[in-house]
């Protein structure tokens, strides 16, 4: 806030065409700086004023204050909630293309990644941006129609990821609504991806 106020004051001074040497002397306390300032072209330039500078300074100052206000308001807000895949993971089923697949609570298709192992995910960084892991803060649960073994693994980032029949589970950013499985059989981010079919 101090920087914004200082900027506004200095900019207003630079934009004012009526600044005089006595006023400058009063502001600087008659220092040696004044002697240099009075004989420099800078004083003449300031006294002449800048065309349209007043409006420009006002606009920039207002914009700076608005940005500052937003920053101050956001600093007091709580941290954003965890991703939709976090919390109490509830797994469901859906039929897509005649195949029964596993979905998350929102109905989005779940996938498994071939390079994974039952105890380790191989999808981090950019990969996890395209294939968000299904994480949980409690115990995963499933609808009655979901058969197979649910479990969890600990990811290197500290999150707990849900597994199904030994496969860590993910969604795909290309699926934007229930009933889609655009990630099925894609070979991306280091290996093939498959929709998680429900065991009978």
Q: Could you outline the blueprint of secondary structure elements for this entry?
A:
Elements: H1 2-15, H2 21-28, H3 32-38, H4 41-48, H5 53-75, E1 90-96, E2 99-103, E3 111-113, H6 126-130, E4 135-136, E5 141-142, E6 150-154, E7 160-164, E8 167-168, E9 187-188, E10 191-195
Helix pairs in contact: 1-5
Overview of the structural elements:
The chain has 200 residues and is α+β, with helices and mostly antiparallel strands. The protein has six helices and ten strands; from the N terminus they run H-H-H-H-H-E-E-E-H-E-E-E-E-E-E-E. It has helices spanning 2-15, 21-28, 32-38, 41-48, 53-75, 126-130; strands spanning 90-96, 99-103, 111-113, 135-136, 141-142, 150-154, 160-164, 167-168, 187-188, 191-195. Strand 9 and strand 10 form a beta hairpin. Helix 1 (2-15) runs antiparallel to helix 5. The longest helix has 23 residues, at 53-75. The termini are far apart.
Structural class by secondary-structure content? alpha+beta
If you compute it from the alpha carbons, what radius of gyration comes out, rounded to the nearest whole angstrom?
Answer: 31 Å
Strand content is 15-25%
- Major sheet size, sense and barrel closure: 4 strands, antiparallel
Question: Can you tell me the residue ranges where pLDDT is under 50 for at least 5 consecutive residues?
Answer: 1-16, 18-30, 66-86
Alpha-carbon distance between the two ends: 63 Å
Order of helices and strands: HHHHHEEEHEEEEEEE
Count structural domains.
2
Total DSSP helices: 6
Give the beta-strand count. 10
**Helix percent band:** 25-40%
Shape: globular
Give the rounded overall mean pLDDT.
75
């Amino acid at each position: 806030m101090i920087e914004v106020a200082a900027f506004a004051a200095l900019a207003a001074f630079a934009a004012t065409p009526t600044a005089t040497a006595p006023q400058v002397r009063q502001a600087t306390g008659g220092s040696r700086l004044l002697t240099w300032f009075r004989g420099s072209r800078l004083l003449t330039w300031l006294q002449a004023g800048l065309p349209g500078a007043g409006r420009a300074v006002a606009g920039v100052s207002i914009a700076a204050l608005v940005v500052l206000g937003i920053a101050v308001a956001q600093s007091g807000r709580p941290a954003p909630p965890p991703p939709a895949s976090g919390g109490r993971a509830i797994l469901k089923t859906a039929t897509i293309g005649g195949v029964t697949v596993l979905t998350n609570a929102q109905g989005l298709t779940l996938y498994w990644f071939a390079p994974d192992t039952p105890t380790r995910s191989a999808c981090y960084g950019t990969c996890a941006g395209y294939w968000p892991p299904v994480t949980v803060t409690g115990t995963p649960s499933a609808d009655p129609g979901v058969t197979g073994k649910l479990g969890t693994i600990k990811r290197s980032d500290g999150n707990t990821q849900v597994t199904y029949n030994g496969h860590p589970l993910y969604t795909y950013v290309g699926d934007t609504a229930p009933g889609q499985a655009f990630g099925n059989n894609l070979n991306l981010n280091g290996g093939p991806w498959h929709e998680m079919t429900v065991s009978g």
